[in-house]
Design a protein that fits this description.
By secondary structure, the chain is of the alpha+beta class. The longest helix is centred in the C-terminal third of the chain and has 37 residues. The chain has 5 helices and 10 strands. The C terminus is likely disordered. Bound molecules: cytidine-5'-diphosphate. The site of cytidine-5'-diphosphate has 12 residues, from α2 and α3.
Length: about 290
């Protein structure tokens, strides 16, 4: 967070180095169910960031003495892969990774209905495969979707994005160069359903106006991100439906019963009427008959 002004991060038209406006998110893509062994999972691509979130649990907690009698323990494990940044990152967990794991755990615990699963743990693994600034917020966004994929009951999803200061101006979703050269960073976790803030950090010096502008721009960004989270979850169920639905069989028309053939189909055969002869009375006996009788 140098803020040295040596690189022009925003041009006269208000366009940033990567072509975005000051209140624009990076391109975001969220995929659900990427880790088949997990109870729930998600992959987020946000700009050049690639992060995978995998959820396991609720499950038994070891060692048992750490279990909470009245609720589940939420444990997050944020890790940056050694190859996620251009300088090889040490594989040993750093203080930064422990801090990020803790703030994400606390944010998630504020929306998960932990009291439903006393004495258990819900473990959330967050692996950064490629980092380009804003990985803690992108990880929280992915974790929230992965928990929903695992069927963990929550009050609402958390959408998370940072705002920052560049030349004293509030800017949304800083990427790595902006993060390094800008003069302030304000990561936010926001639950649109509750209209509640679940994570708020601040790095740098802000005036009250700059703080308010940054917060407002971050909330607006989080609301946009929330729509992408919802769409990703809906897409999962659309895909499942397409997989399980049996395609409709083409209708086979039953052969019709054969109609009696007529020589000319247009000519309707006339019904044959049987005319019975009227019964006549016995004929009068002839003279000869009479003779016979006599
Ligand atoms: O990632 P986020 O902005 O949430 O956290 P940060 O501590 O402000 O880190 C900013 C960025 O610095 C990371 O996203 C990485 O791109 C980079 N970084 C790095 O290059 N090497 C590290 N060991 C740690 C961070």
């Amino acid at each position: 967070m140098a803020g040295d002004g040596s690189v022009k991060l925003i041009d006269e038209k208000g366009i940033r180095l990567d072509g975005r406006k000051v209140d624009e998110l990076r391109p975001v893509n969220i995929k659900i169910g990427v880790i088949k062994n997990a109870d729930g999972s998600a992959e987020i691509r946000m700009g050049k960031n690639i992060i995978v979130a995998a959820v396991y649990g609720p499950r038994e907690l070891h060692p048992k003495h750490r279990a909470l009698a009245d609720r589940a323990l939420i444990q997050c494990f944020y890790r940056m892969s050694t190859f996620s940044v251009s300088d090889r990152k040490s594989p040993a967990p750093s203080r930064r990774e422990k801090e990020i794991s803790l703030v994400i755990s606390n944010a998630l615990a504020s929306v998960i209905l932990t009291e439903k699963y006393p004495r258990t743990t819900i473990d959330v693994y967050l692996q950064v495969l490629q980092a380009d600034g804003g990985t803690r917020t992108a990880s929280l966004t992915a974790a929230s979707v992965a928990l929903a994929d695992a069927g963990i009951p929550m009050k609402g999803l958390i959408a998370s994005v940072a705002a920052g200061l560049i030349n004293g101006q509030a800017v949304l979703d800083l990427f790595d160069i902006e993060d390094q050269k800008g003069s302030g960073d304000l990561p936010l976790g926001y639950c649109p359903v509750l209209d509640e803030i679940s994570l708020l950090q601040l790095d740098g010096v802000f005036t009250v106006k700059q703080f308010e502008d940054s917060l407002n721009i971050a909330i607006k960004g989080a609301k946009d991100l929330y729509e992408i989270q919802r769409d990703a979850l809906k897409q999962k169920y659309t895909d499942i439906r397409a997989e399980v639905e049996v395609p409709e069989k083409p209708k086979v028309e039953k052969p019709k019963a054969e109609e009696p053939k007529t020589e000319d189909p247009k000519v309707v055969p006339k019904p044959v009427l049987k005319v019975e002869k009227p019964k006549t009375e016995d004929p009068k006996p002839s003279k000869d008959d009479k003779k016979e009788v006599e």
